[in-house]
Each structure stands twice: as structure tokens, then as C-alpha cells.
């Protein structure tokens, strides 16, 4: 009898449920949108955890219906979700306030406090990451300082996906991959950092139990069954944060495997067999969804956002054209030679994370001449985003992270031109996977390991993740792209005094 596993991804815009058959095909899927996040002040971003639970129940029921399946046919459930959020519950297990989510950056003062009390270098040694406003710990400190009445009511804390699993199972749990983004985990030892907690006076009793991603940490409760249509008692695994789960769905699980994903932001993600550390904090180092493995990750803040910005601001005259606007833009850019005839784009529209850690960095179009056209600008944007991602590969080389296979994901994988530009910019063959279903697919794979359908995450990925296309760099482009990248690397140092 065919077995099925369910992956639930609690994103920012909505919750997605994907049901995977043991042979690897998708049997049913559905997405339910969330209420838009609230931003009461600039830099604030809040969501109601109860709305995630509502959306999860509907998404699971719709996915079951789409696959013409019953709840009892699901052997195990896995979770993924937006990282870094702060969910705080009272003694009755009700949220004391809306959750502060990943893109909430009100906590600059708390980051300074962490660096003063623990030390900027020491926090990286303890958690493998610098104190950044996105991280969960800073949001707890902000709440304690600014809303003491709310903080005094807090009896347990958790991450977004873990709140939804709590509602499904009644168990307070998290996985080491998602917990790596809290700034409270000793990432190298895969346990809560007693030094961080004691120095900043966070009670360990508030935190959930820690598990590796494929470990079973609960079972569907009566209330969870009623809300979702799943069978009471169905086992549930710990799962992973969206980056580790998404990488698992693309088969990025063994050292040497790397993904380059271009969505709104861009992420270069490498699996490692050790907690590879960048002493300068330019990369995130987190536990992977695979027991005994880690990953390093570089982030470009405005990757796909750069092309969307151009579309929104400068493509209005073609708004009535039929077809995908991005296909039209990239077709236009394809007429321009590699290197964009010397035109360069620095994609720092939202500041920059890797490699500069500079929220004040700003975008720049450099080298314009009277002979450049709109098509040159579009191609320069595509190349500039690829160069920004290549910065992470440069750091990988510095800290001896191996790069054997590069798989592309997100919108940057759907454009044939952008695929070729990335191969040329990285100087490395790139691969496209057959079906990229995102983090929910990775959560389902992890659930399959928990259900013993596959003996390990490696075996699962070998069984279900298939490469559909390989793109080799074009020899005639390599020297030009290298020269363009060398020039690109000089933009930020030259412009920094203007940015500040």
C-alpha cells in the first residue's frame, strides 16, 4: 500500500501543505494565505500566530482533497517555516502579543546590548553568528525592556512553525536548524547556550525541547485532528527552518552540494560536515536538517527584488502587454553581450548582508555611457545579482567550504538567460532540479525519514530529487565576466563614503 507524508511550510504570506508519495511524486498540495503582516511603525513587522494555525488547518484539508486522500493515509507530518520569529505564550498558552517576525528590525539597541554584555566576538564564538536585529533573542529582549507587563506574563516561547505544531500536537518542541536562527543556540554543540541565556537572564525553562530535524517529537492530538482532518496519533517530526528545509527539497544535504536561490532576496547555501565559521560574521552558520551536519549561508538582500524594482518603476509603458513581464525583460537583455558593455549594477537596494553587513549600503548603476540602452541596464541587473551571490562563493573559498555541485532555485532558475549568466559568473556548471516545491517539499522528505520510508535524509534525497538540466559556463564569456566581477568588487569600497 502506497505511503504518503505531509510537509507544512508556515511562510510569511501563507501556509503551504504538500503531500508526497513514497515514490517521490506530489500527490496533493495547497496554499492558504495569511492576513498581511502589520507594521505599526517603520521597521516593525508583526503577525498573529492564531492566523497561522487557521491557515494550516485549511491548507492541509485542501491538500488532502486535491490528492483525493484521507487523513489516515498520511504516515507522518513534517514542518518548515519562516525563521527568527518570536512567539510568546502565557500560562493559558495564549499569545501575549502578536509575534515579531523575521523582517522586524526594531532591535538595534538590543543588538548593541548583546555586544556590550557578551562581546561582539564572543557571541560569534558561542552561536556562530553575529547579533543582528532579525534574530529571535533580540526580540525577546525588546519585549522585556519595552513591554514589561507582557514579558512578565510569558510562560513559554517558540518559533513560528513550532507554534503551529504545538497547536497540532500539544508538544513544545523545536529543531536545531530553526533554533540556530535564535542567537540562543550553541550551533557547534547543537544545544542551548547556557552562557548566552545566563548572561542575558533568559530562563531556560521558557524554551522548547530540542530535536534533530527527522526525530519524532509528538503526535496529532484530538484537537489537531479536528482542525486538519489528519488521523489522531499520526507522528510528527521536528522539521526545519525554511532555508534548511528548502535546501533539503533540492538535495543540498552532503558536503560539496551548494544551492544558489534567487527570490526576493538571494541565498547561497552550502552543506558542511563541520560548523564552518566565518570569524567576520559575513555568513550564517546553522545546524542542517541532517543530523550531524551544518550549513553556511550568504544572503543578498535585493536579488530578485532588483529586477522587480526595475519592472515596477520603468516598465509601466508595457503594462498592457500580454505574457510574463520577466520573460519579456530577460528576452530584451539577451540581445546584449556578456559584461553588458561595461555597465555594472550593485544590488544594494535594501542595504547588504553578505559580505558587507551594512544596512546603509545603497544600489548603484555604474559606468553608464550614451551608447547604453534599456536592455543593457536589464542585463547589468541580472549580472550584478549573480556577482553579489558570487561574493558568498568567494568567502566559501576563504574558509575552505567545498563546492562540487551548484543547484539553482527560485526565479533565477526559471529564466534560461539568468541560468547561463549564473554559470558564467560562478565559472561553474549549474544544475536545475526537476520539481522545485520549496520548503514544504523538504519538510515532507524529513517526515518520510521519520516514518522510516527512507533510512536517512541522504537516501531520501537520492530517491526523490532529480536533476532535469545542466548548464555549463560558456568559455567565451569567462574572461569578460571575471573582469566585470573584479570591477564590481570595487564599487562598494569606492561608494561607501557616499552611502554613509
Reported for the largest beta sheet, the result is: 7 strands, mixed
The number of helical runs is 19
Q: Approximately how much helix is present in the residues?
A: 25-40%
CATH class of the largest domain: Alpha Beta
Globally, the shape reads globular
C-alpha Rg (nearest Å): 22 Å
Structural class of the helices, strands and pairings?
alpha+beta
The count of β-strands is 24
**CATH structural architecture of the largest domain:** 2-Layer Sandwich
Termini gap: 63 Å
Question: What fraction of residues sit in β-strands?
Answer: 15-25%
Q: What is the domain total for the residues?
A: 2
CATH superfamily of the largest domain: ATPase, nucleotide binding domain
Which stretches of 5+ consecutive residues score pLDDT under 50? none
User: Can you list the strand order of the major beta sheet?
Assistant: 18-19-17-16-22-23-24
pLDDT averaged residue by residue? 95
The name of the CATH topology of the largest domain is Nucleotidyltransferase, domain 5
Structural summary, described in words:
- With 500 residues, this protein is an alpha+beta fold.
- It folds into 2 domains: 4-244, 2-Layer Sandwich (Nucleotidyltransferase, domain 5); 251-435 and 466-500, Nucleotidyltransferase, domain 5 (2-Layer Sandwich), CATH 3.30.420.40.
- It contains 19 helices and 24 strands.
- The strands form 8 sheets. It has a 7-stranded mixed beta sheet, with helices on both faces. Strands 3-2-1-5-15 form a 5-stranded mixed beta sheet, sandwiched between helices. Strands 4-7 form a two-stranded antiparallel sheet.
- Helix 12 (325-333) crosses helix 13 (374-398).
- The longest helix is centred in the C-terminal third of the chain and has 25 residues, at 374-398.
- The protein is globular and about 70 Å long.
